[in-house]
Amino acid sequence: QVQLVESGGGLVQAGGSRRLSCAASGRTISGYTMGWFRQAPGKEREFVAVISRSGGSTKYADSVKGRFTISRENAKNTVYLQMNSLKPEDTAVYYCAANTHFLMYTDPARFGSWGQGTQVTVSP
Q1: What is the pLDDT of residues 75-115, one digit of tens each?
Q2: Ramachandran region of residue 88, left (φ > 0), alpha (ψ -120 to 50) or beta?
Q3: Which of 16, 79, 82, 93 is buried most, with the most CB atoms less than 10 Å from its CB?
Q4: Rounded CA separation 70/93 (Å)
Q5: 62: which residues sit within 8 A by CB, 6+ positions away?
Q6: 101 alpha-carbon distance from chain centroid
Q7: What percent of the chain lies above the pLDDT cut of 70?
Q8: What distance in Å separates the CA atoms of residue 93 and residue 86, rounded to the nearest whole number?
């Protein structure tokens, strides 16, 4: 169905900023709830942020609230994750995901489409 490709990852110093992008193809994202998740080595995939279909509502994990911002431009079929005040514990592979349901689930099992992920490394 919808294909997702993340970009924007890389190495950044603690306290710095980075913006991730998620480009979709095959389907328009206007009908999807979109989310960002991350997975560090040896840990399970965890919720980061989710945004409603029209972008009117957002939800964040406590660990990133106040530092990260999720947004979307449906006309460009793209979702973003602005990351500020980065910490070493933010180091992980970040994944973009799409949920066909309108409810803003935070469980990764509810998301059926996933990108390949982009590595974000925060040095101390």
Answers
A1: 999 999 999 999 999 999 999 999 998 999 999 999 999 99
A2: alpha
A3: 79
A4: 16
A5: none
A6: 17
A7: 100
A8: 14
